[in-house]
Every structure is written in structure tokens, then in C-alpha cells.
Amino acid sequence: MVNYKDLGLVNTKAMFAKAITGGFAVPAYNFNNMEQLQAIVMACAETQSPVILQVSAGARKYANATILRYLGQAAVEYAKELTGGKGLPITLHLDHGPDFDTCKSCVEYGFSSVMIDGSHHPYEKNIEETKKVVEYAHKYNVTVEGELGVLAGVEDDVKAETHTYTQPEEVVDFVGKTGVDSLAISIGTSHGAFKFKPGQTPKIRLDILDEIVKKLPGFPIVLHGSSSVPQEYVKIINENGGKLQDAIGIGEDQLRLAAKSAVCKINIDSDGRLAMTAAIRKYFNDHPDHFDPRQYLTPAREELKKMYARKNREVLGSDGHAPEILAAEGK
């Protein structure tokens, strides 16, 4: 059993409390390898932003649970190096935990936050599974995210054909019966890079969000599937040998409005994949004689860092908030 505090991590309580009163959202960026992790920490150090490092069940299989634990600890130490010893508030979070055993394992490996995704179950079964995780995780002060409603799209092992919007009338009952610390809702965002096709209007249901906020004032709300699918990256990929279909993501202006409301965690994964892939494909076309991974992963890491720094400043509004959260954590 590894306690997340021994790794220098924090849970989400203080950062969400500050996000709600400060009108910003904490970035939740997924990572699978060292270069992605470096880019995230570099971007957040540059912008003085708190950050939630997200690991999916698929990422744990890919990177190994033990290695991820040490990468989480390395992120804390790296942030100190980049900030002159001050550090950043960093949460290591399980994204879309499929079952109790996976959540339990992550708690034991030093994660400071876990999500149990029971949204594919009937309502009462979702409550039962979520409550079981909450009761275990809270013994170790690990925060828990639950989910109501279903997001369409595909990302790792999470797949759904259509949206099922979160029902505002259910949220008070669900939160009360489970004891979750935050709630992921479905209001029109979706997983993966192919959220909307040309001709469709990419719009999220901010009216549903408003109804949920009225019923759960001051409670942390989470948006999954919030990549904007930057068209410049799609264009670079296709110009350099890729064959991505046309796709449109969630408008950043809509995400900024959500962040100013009760949404205090916004998940972004596909944008990071697109940024790195675009940089790597272009590099190979420009340098066909190169084969050292350090050569092509360096510009990929830099492009990812640049994009995430901009997201923190212009979309999430999380820039500059790290010091106040560290103070709240007593660090």
C-alpha cells in the first residue's frame, strides 16, 4: 500500500473548492508515456496551473501500474525543479475506472483520486458500485468521481453509440446516496476525435448544466470528452500521410463558459494525441533520414506543451491559481 501523500500528490478537494469560487476549471490531461507527462508538467509550471494527471485503465495496461506510480512521483519532483522548489498541486487520477477492483488497485498504488464509471449500469446498480468505491477510497482520503449519463464516442475501452443526457432530477439523489466528491455529467460532449461532422453544430447543453447547478449549488461538476479537435493538427496530419476523417470538436468558447460555472474539471485527451501525432508526422516528412526517437519526440513534446499552456490560459482559466491551492494544502 502506497499513500499518495508520500508521493507528494494531493487529492482534488482544495483545487475544486478554489475552482468553484474562482470561476476556472482544473485541467485533467491524460498521459501514457514520459514525453506526454513532461509536456503537461512543463505547461502547468509555465502557467502556474494546478493539474490532474489522468490515467485510463488502458494506460495502466500499456505503461504498467508500477511505472505509472513512479511517474506520478516524478511529476511532483519535476514540477519543483521547474518552479524553483515551489512545486504544483498535482493529482494522479484514474480515468473511467471500470470496476471496484481497478479503483482499489489504484488507491493502493498511490493514486490520489479515482473515477468509478458506473454510467453503463442501471441507475440503482450505478449507485451501488459507486458507493462501494467511495467507502473504500475515503478510508485513505482519496477523492472519488462518479458519472451520471452516457457520453457517445470511443476512447480507449470506453465506447457508446449515442448520448444519454444527465437527468437533473437524479443528481441530488445520486450524490446523496453515493457520497461522491465530484460528478461527471453528460451534456453533449463526447469521447474521441470524431465528435461532430462538418455541417453539424457543435453545441453542448449548457441549459442542462444550469439546471444541475441549481440542484447542486457549489458541488464540483466534471466534463469528459472536451477536446476541441484543433483543425490545424488534423490538416498537418493529413498533409503528411495521415487519413483522418473530417471532425469537429467542442467549441473552446463553450468550455470557457462551463468553466466559469460549476464545472471545475475538464478532461482533454484527444487534442494531445493530435498535437503529438501532427508534430511527429511532419518531422518524419521533413527528416526522412532520422530514426532516433529523441529527435522526433522532442518537437512533439514541445508542441504538446505549447497547446496545453494555451488551454490553461485561454480556455480553462486555471493559470496563476497554483499558489493559492498549495497554500490551502499547507505547502
Structural topology:
Blueprint: H1 13-22, E1 26-30, H2 34-47, E2 51-56, H3 57-63, H4 65-82, E3 90-97, H5 100-108, E4 113-116, H6 123-137, E5 143-148, E6 153-155, E7 158-160, H7 168-178, E8 182-185, H8 206-215, E9 221-223, H9 231-239, H10 252-260, E10 263-268, H11 270-286, H12 293-316, H13 322-328
Parallel strand pairs: 1-2, 1-10, 2-3, 3-4, 4-5, 5-8, 8-9, 9-10
Antiparallel strand pairs: 6-7
Helix pairs in contact: 2-4, 2-12, 5-6, 7-8, 9-11, 11-12
What does this 3D model show about the protein?
- The chain is an alpha/beta fold.
- The chain has one domain: TIM Barrel, CATH 3.20.20.70.
- It is 48% helix and 15% strand.
- The chain has 13 helices and 10 strands.
- The strands form 2 sheets. The chain has an 8-stranded parallel beta barrel, surrounded by 10 helices. A two-stranded antiparallel ribbon has the order 6-7.
- Helix 2 links the parallel strand 1 and strand 2.
- The model has no long low-confidence stretch (mean pLDDT 91).
Concise overview:
With 331 residues, the protein is an alpha/beta fold.
- Tell me the Rg in angstroms: 19 Å
Structural class, from secondary structure content?
A: alpha/beta
Number of strands: 10
> Low-confidence spans: pLDDT under 50, at least 5 residues?
none
Q: H/E order of the elements? A: HEHEHHEHEHEEEHEHEHHEHHH
- Our count of domains comes out at 1
Mean pLDDT: 91
Helix content: 40-55%
Classified by CATH, the class is: Alpha Beta
Could you give the distance between the termini? 24 Å
What would CATH call the architecture? Answer: Alpha-Beta Barrel
- What fold name stands as the CATH topology? TIM Barrel
Spatial ordering of strands, largest sheet? 1-2-3-4-5-8-9-10
